[in-house]
Write a structure and sequence with these properties.
With 819 residues, the chain is of the alpha+beta class. It is 17% helix and 31% strand. It has 15 helices and 41 strands. The strands form 9 sheets. An 8-stranded parallel barrel has the order 4-5-6-7-8-9-10-11, surrounded by 4 helices. A hairpin with a 4-residue loop joins strand 13 and strand 14. Helix 8 packs parallel to helix 9. The radius of gyration is 30 Å and the shape is globular. The site of beta-D-galactopyranose has 9 residues, from loops. This is Beta-galactosidase. It comes from Brassica rapa subsp. trilocularis.
Length: 819
């Protein structure tokens, strides 16, 4: 009995204190073991708590050791000293989910995040405090930053979640990429970074702090790299391991922009190259991007979808082949962990960007053969053998003899995702709508708001960002014989409103939004003013506040003027400056205040003559939840711009009317050569974002669900439909001597549409037979092996498929299967 108690006590103690993190220039050491760490970013508020276990489980199955997340200050402290950690914001629950899955955590407290998140994660009330300047030695800022950072650290400590306490968090981050913008802050910037380091250090978290993109990071901060490639990165302290906090797996999307893609081959190449050249920690930003629900999208103009072309797509589905190809890479790298962290490194340069790196310990060696040439394949002779390394790729040989992995040779299926109609609806295409107008009478006809000022203010200052909407209203009186009163009058507004709707005397005179990233424009419209009192009502709308750049907090938003009325009388132009007029302000819209989006809202809705293309209109409908478990999206094709709610949950801003430009897409994108965010774009000339994620946990599986739309520009809701998203078909194109796994995820494979073993041609969806082909019936073999099954594993070999004579060329199996 005594010994049992002793044993239990020992176990308890060892559990609490087992994991100590240190670093020794080559690797992070955890619990005495030097590690090769693969990590991925998942931002908890960009999915729901119900999605977290599955996302984290898939991350682990994808070969990750750790999950990285920012902490989002403005979400947690929306009003000063009033905190919210509920639902999607339950940081502790998220960290515990990581722990439950046995993964490590990297906690980027910031509290500046960037992250295409509204205002980079800073609360707008912070900006509105007196004498405030962000991210410099400003007392008010530093006090608030310390307050929030300390609070987060204390919360996490209380739950024993730092590795020093036996928890999962092995690294913490203070600030974020300050080095990229610090120039304009001058000496204060340098002092601020020192203060950040001291402040973080004083919090005594027991794990190392990182500062990404900070090459003057004060010791003991670890400076780390962010980018598409980090193989050239050298930390400022020789004792700091080479760490990559953001390997961008794709890119974000803006309204009016296209869909970014970073090829699987190139992501894998960047990772392999990083480990070839002494890297030890690689984090994918993002591993799951998710959704910017509500008003969390940054900006201006970041879309609701934050898919990022990440290994897990916006909805949590495997993005294949990216997920699978990287999983294989992780498995190979993990298998070499000992050699990579203890081995002596030597490099052979073959010229023409080809090189071999050998990691050697007494027990054995592991090799990387790299070819950074964009055009030509390299033939590397090594220890009497000859290896072909394709252009822009890395081959990994865990034993320096046998090729286990090449970044450009994908042996994972490509999954083609499809949207399926909602089968729970009897008549899915005809949702029944009711509607109501947004009540704007007080503003349009009376110009009456909540407060008045004889000045035009930045929108943030007035609204505290409690809403996207701000009315700027004024009245202008003209005498009957006023010189101004003529035919040729116009209203000219110098605007930094992300979107502007202008009304004069109750009439909509025009709208404008920023285009091509120009958030500073002139709105000018001819207007007929009348004698007597005229009401000018300008509705300014923000679409995500700026999140990046030096002093980004003071980038203007709203209507900062000047505003003029001009009158032209022959050659003469008379200008009346309204900027110092009495302006009446009103934050938000009435329908939002009366919560028309609530399911239980008692307001009256009309089912009679539901209008199309009407601005400022509320629409409501009910629908049945789609059957099954596949992720749900709502197709908002036909609508203009606005906000959507499902059962009272704000699923984000929508703007399908914003069509991306026709040019600049590249369907046959070449993975060779350095990636940048304008490479490999798709979706040209299409609505920027048509489908909007509706997490299953927002839905009632039984009974009715409510969708409410606030349509601001005018649109047609009759095409709106709920759909599910899943794998529709899959393809593979794999060389012999590989094993290919085929899977439709949650469904069985239903048919083999194409299969050929030999030298088939074409791409997924358009495969054709080549000049040589096996005489065995490949379709039959695959049908037998795979159809009706959720998963099948095929050995691509002559033994399995016969021996077509392809005159010496390596044979391939091409398959297309229907799910
Ligand atoms: C980095 C930043 C991230 C994210 C990324 C682009 O500069 O640290 O938070 O904004 O760019 O997606």
């Amino acid at each position: 009995m005594v010994s049992l108690r002793f044993l239990l006590c020992f176990l308890f103690v060892s559990n609490v204190y087992a994991t100590i993190v240190s670093h020794d220039g080559r690797a992070i050491t955890i619990d005495g073991h030097r590690r090769v760490l693969l990590s991925g970013s998942i931002h908890y508020p960009r999915s729901t708590p119900e999605m977290w276990p599955d996302l984290i489980k898939k991350s682990k199955e994808g070969g990750l050791d750790a999950i990285e997340t920012y902490v989002f200050w403005n979400a947690h402290e929306p009003t000063r000293r009033q905190y919210d950690f509920s639902g999607k914001l339950d940081l502790i629950r998220f960290l515990k989910t990581i722990q439950d899955e046995g993964l490590y955590g990297v906690l980027r407290i910031g509290p500046y995040a960037c992250a295409e998140w509204n205002y980079g994660g800073f609360p707008v009330w912070l900006h509105n405090m007196p004498e405030m300047v962000f991210r410099t030695t400003n007392k008010a800022f530093m006090d608030e930053m310390r307050n929030f950072t300390t609070m987060i650290v204390d919360m996490v400590k209380k739950e024993n979640l730092f590795a020093s306490q036996g928890g999962p968090i092995i690294l913490a981050q203070i600030e974020n990429e300050y080095g990229n913008v610090m120039g304009p802050y001058g000496e204060s910037g340098k002092a601020y970074i020192k203060w950040c380091a001291n402040m973080a250090q004083s919090l005594d978290v027991g794990v190392p702090w990182i500062m990404c993109q900070q090459n003057d990071a004060p010791q003991p901060m670890l400076n780390t790299c962010n980018g598409f490639y980090c193989d050239n990165f050298v930390p400022n302290n020789p004792n700091t391991p080479k760490m990559w906090t953001e390997n961008w797996t794709g890119w974000f999307k803006q309204w009016g922009g296209k869909n970014p893609h970073r090829t699987t081959e190139d992501v894998a190449f960047s990772v392999a190259r990083f480990f070839q050249r002494g890297g030890t920690f690689n984090n994918y930003y993002m591993y799951h991007g998710g959704t910017n629900f509500d008003r969390t999208a940054g900006g201006p103009y970041i879309t609701t979808s934050y898919d990022y072309d990440a290994p897990l797509d916006e909805y949590g589905n495997l993005n294949q082949p990216k997920y699978g190809h990287l999983k294989q890479l992780h498995d190979v790298l993990h298998s070499m962990e000992r050699t990579l962290t203890y081995g002596n490194i030597s490099t052979i340069d073959f010229g023409n960007s080809a090189s071999a790196t050998i990691y050697k310990t007494e027990e054995g060696s592991s090799c990387f053969f790299g070819n950074g040439n964009e055009k030509s394949d390299a033939t590397i002779s090594f220890q009497g053998e000859s290896y072909v390394v394709p252009a822009w790729s890395v081959t990994i040989l865990p034993d320096c003899k046998n090729e286990a992995y090449n970044t450009a040779k994908i042996t994972t299926q490509t999954s083609m995702m499809v949207k399926k109609p909602n089968e729970a609806e009897d008549t899915p295409s005809t949702l029944k709508w009711s509607w109501r107008p947004e009540n704007m009478d007080n503003f349009l006809l009376k110009g009456k708001g909540e407060s008045t000022q004889t000045q035009l203010f930045d929108q943030k200052v007035v609204t505290n960002d409690q809403s996207d909407y701000l009315w700027y209203m004024t009245t202008v009186k003209f005498k009957k014989r006023d010189l101004f009163l003529g035919k040729n009058m116009s209203l000219r507004v110098n605007s930094t409103a992300h979107v502007l709707h202008a009304f004069v005397n109750g009439k909509h005179i025009g709208s404008q939004h920023a285009e091509n990233d120009k958030f500073n424009y002139v709105f000018e419209k001819d207007v007929k003013f009348k004698s007597g009192r005229n009401v000018i009502a300008l509705l300014s709308i923000t679409v995500g506040l700026a999140n990046y750049g030096a002093f980004f907090e003071s980038k203007p938003a709203g209507i900062t003027g000047p505003i003029f009325i001009t009158g032209r009388n022959g050659d003469e132009t008379i200008v009346k400056d309204l900027s110092a007029h009495k302006w009446s302000y009103k934050t938000g819209l009435i329908g939002f205040e009366s919560q028309l989006f609530r399911t239980e809202s008692m307001s009256k809705w009309s089912v009679e003559s539901v209008p199309f293309n009407r601005t400022m209109t509320w629409y409501k409908t009910t629908f049945k939840s789609p059957l099954g478990n596949d992720p749900v999206v709502v197709d908002l094709m036909g609508l203009g711009k606005g906000t959507a709610w499902v059962n009272g949950n704000n699923i984000g801003r929508y703007w399908p009317a914003f069509i991306s430009s026709k040019n600049g897409c590249d369907a046959n994108c070449n993975y060779r050569g350095a990636y940048h965010a304008e490479k490999c774009l798709t979706n040209c000339g299409e609505p920027t974002q048509r489908w909007y994620h509706v997490p299953r946990s927002f839905l009632n599986a039984e009974g009715d669900n409510t969708l409410v739309l606030f349509e601001e520009m005018g649109g047609n809701p009759s095409l709106v439909s709920f759909q599910t998203t899943r794998v529709g078909s899959l393809c593979a194109n794999v060389y012999e001597k590989n094993i290919i796994e085929l899977s439709c995820d949650r469904k069985p494979i239903s048919a083999i549409k194409f299969a050929s073993f030999g030298n088939p041609d074409g791409n997924c969806g358009s495969f054709v037979k080549g000049t040589c082909e096996s005489s065995n019936n490949t379709v039959d073999i695959l049908t037998q092996e795979c159809v009706g099954k959720q998963k099948c594993s095929i050995d691509v070999s002559t033994k399995r498929f016969g021996t077509p004579d392809c005159s010496g060329a390596v044979r391939r199996l091409a398959v297309e299967a229907i799910c």
